[in-house]
Every structure is written in structure tokens, then in C-alpha cells.
Design brief:
By secondary structure, the chain is an alpha/beta fold. It has two domains: 33 residues; 273 residues, 4-Layer Sandwich (Metallo-beta-lactamase, Chain A). The strands form two sheets. The protein has an eight-stranded mixed β-sheet, with no helix packed on it. It has a seven-stranded mixed β-sheet with strand order 7-8-9-10-11-12-13. Strand 11, helix 7 and strand 12 form a beta-alpha-beta unit. Helix 4 runs parallel beside helix 5 and helix 6 crosses helix 7. The longest helix is centred in the N-terminal third of the chain and has 29 residues. It is elongated, with a radius of gyration of 23 Å. It binds zinc ion. The site of zinc ion has 6 residues, from helix 3.
């Protein structure tokens, strides 16, 4: 076969190849955009204006994982975990924060499991975070390294969170870390940061993924001295807990009788994914929750829930239906 040596034919062929390659690239980008719209184009989650002195705690439905956003009455937000970094979880958290427009944004990674801090890098990339609290045990995983590297590249101050550390607001609201201790921690779940939050006059306990053993230890310490977890003049009264985000997605190895009976909370929240592989929440844990907590709600059944707190009383409802 004789090849064409005509320079015009060669040039035309080159042009057609360039056009074809460009078209394919444009089509691929359009497909990516259609399947995964760029986050900044996502609509904000809509929230009604907060009333004076009102705080809200949003239990965000991120599938099998955890994300709680404490919205203090001064407009600052404390994000405790941010889901697993999946497309759906990231977008949900992004839409919440876009809608809340936090006056200040503080983020806590309770422990280095992907279902809790896989989505934090995305928050750091898209919002101005004033402080990032890290767990006592880090991780070698890619998502954890990515979170650290994005935080470093944006000069976000970082601090390891341990017992007695306190995040406080001028409104008198606060979050106190009651577990873990700084030393002797070897297991990620056990060493999860547990936060006692006082917002809108209501007391919340966020148990991350702690095990029954740690729950029992906290209950025993508190039984000996109820001031043991107080920090910087901010009291922690476990037996006045009104809302508890139960530990470890409602697994059977948490939600111990010792802690639940001490709390006597009105509301329990279970954060887990619909049809999750771990079969959370476990039947036995649900039984204990039913025995000691007035009402328990599941995010896999209801979607995101918001507790609105003011002057020590609160209401709970679906975030989508806030008015
Ligand atoms: Zn978890």
C-alpha cells in the first residue's frame, strides 16, 4: 500500500485527530460533571433563621458513619466527624455547611476510622476551618494523610483532643472532652473522643465509637466524683444528659447498661447506614436503649435529624422539615 506523502492530507489527518481527541475529552468531562457535579454548584441545605439564644444540633445522615454539627447560638459551628468521604456523604455535609454559613468553624476527628474522618479533608478544602482537633491515635491510611496534608497546606491549627480540653463560646455554651486520657491508648474505637456538649441550655453526649468497657469506666469514675470531668469552670453532669448520640452506630459492644442507666436521657440517636454490612444497630443494644432512653431515633430510617435547643428545653425533628 502506498502512503500519502501529500502535506495537506497529513495536516488534515492531524486536525481530525485533534478534533476527535478534544471531543472525547469534552464528552468525558461532561459525563463526570453529570454524574458528580462540582460541589460549589450544589444547592445549600435550607435552614430557617435561628431565634435569639437558640442553638441547634444536626445529626447528619451520612450513611454508615458519623457526622454531628453543633450550631452554637452565636453562629459558630462545631463539626464532630464528617462521614466516610464518599460522594453522597461529602455532598450532604457540604450542603449543610453551605446552608449554615458558620461564623466560625471548628472540626473534631473523634478517631482515625474512615467512617468518621474520611470526609474531613473535603471540609478543609471548601470552608475556612479555624481549628482541627485530632484523635490521640492517628493512622497511616491515605484518607488520614490527606486530611493532615490539606490542613497543613491551609495552615489550619491542629491539636490533639484529650480529656479536659474544652471548646467554649462567650455565650456560656461549651463542649468538654471527657475521654480519652492522653496516655495508654492502643485501640482506635476505645480511644474515640467523647464530647459532652452544653448548647442552648441542653446537654448532649456524643459517644463516637467507644466500647462498653470505656463507657463503664466513665460511669464508674463519675460515680466516685461527679466533678471529675469538669473543665475550666464548665460542668459535665452525665446524669443530666438529655440527648445522647449512642456509641458505635448502635453496635452490641457498646451502649452498656451502666452508662445508659446513669444518663437516663430523653433522646438517643443512632447514626448508621441503611442495610449496612455490620447489621447496626444490634438487637440487644436496641433492647437496652429502649429500657433506659425515652425515645431512640435512627438516621437510617429517618434521615438527618435536628435538635433545636433554647433555655434548657428542646424539640427534635427531621432536618428537611425544619420551619
Ligand atoms: Zn464508626
Amino acid at each position: 500500500m502506498q502512503k500519502s506523502k501529500d502535506p495537506d492530507v497529513k495536516a488534515r489527518r492531524k486536525l481530525w485527530i485533534t478534533i476527535a481527541v478534544s471531543t472525547v475529552v469534552v464528552l468525558i468531562l461532561a459525563l463526570i460533571e453529570a454524574l458528580a457535579p462540582f460541589e460549589h454548584l450544589l444547592p445549600a441545605q435550607s435552614f430557617p433563621m435561628r431565634k435569639e439564644g437558640e442553638a441547634r444540633v444536626h445529626f447528619v445522615s451520612v450513611g454508615q458513619g458519623d457526622c454531628t454539627i453543633v450550631e452554637f447560638s452565636d453562629g459558630a459551628c462545631l463539626v464532630v466527624d464528617a462521614g466516610d468521604g464518599s460522594y453522597l456523604a461529602d455532598n450532604t455535609v457540604y450542603r449543610y455547611l453551605k446552608g449554615l454559613k458558620p461564623k466560625e468553624l471548628i472540626v473534631v476527628a473523634t478517631h482515625a476510622d474512615i467512617d468518621h474522618c474520611g470526609g474531613i479533608a473535603d471540609i478543609l478544602r471548601n470552608f475556612h476551618v479555624t481549628k482541627l482537633y485530632l484523635p490521640v491515635l492517628g493512622s497511616q491510611n491515605g484518607f488520614y494523610d490527606e486530611m493532615l496534608s490539606v490542613a497543613r497546606s491551609r495552615n489550619v491549627p491542629m491539636q490533639t483532643l484529650t480529656r479536659y480540653d474544652c471548646i467554649s463560646r462567650e455565650t456560656g455554651e461549651y463542649a468538654v472532652c471527657i475521654s480519652p486520657h492522653k496516655t495508654d491508648e492502643k485501640v482506635k474505637n476505645t480511644s474515640s473522643a467523647v464530647l459532652y456538649v452544653h448548647a442552648g441550655g441542653v446537654n448532649f453526649l456524643l459517644l463516637a465509637d467507644v466500647t462498653a468497657e470505656r463507657e463503664q469506666q466513665l460511669a464508674a469514675e463519675y460515680a466516685v466524683d461527679e466533678t471529675i470531668f469538669d473543665s475550666e469552670g464548665h460542668s459535665v453532669r452525665l446524669d443530666n444528659t438529655q440527648v445522647v448520640k449512642v456509641a458505635h452506630h448502635g453496635s452490641n459492644t457498646s451502649s452498656s447498661e451502666e452508662l445508659l442507666s446513669l444518663l437516663g436521657a430523653q433522646v438517643g440517636i443512632i447514626s448508621c447506614g441503611e442495610g449496612n454490612l455490620y447489621r447496626h444497630p444490634a438487637g440487644d443494644a436496641l433492647g437496652r436503649l429502649e429500657q433506659y432512653i425515652t425515645d431512640t431515633f435512627r438516621l437510617d430510617e429517618l434521615g438527618g435529624l435536628t435538635v433545636t435547643a433554647q433555655g434548657g428545653t428542646f424539640t427534635i425533628g427531621k432536618t428537611e422539615e425544619l420551619s
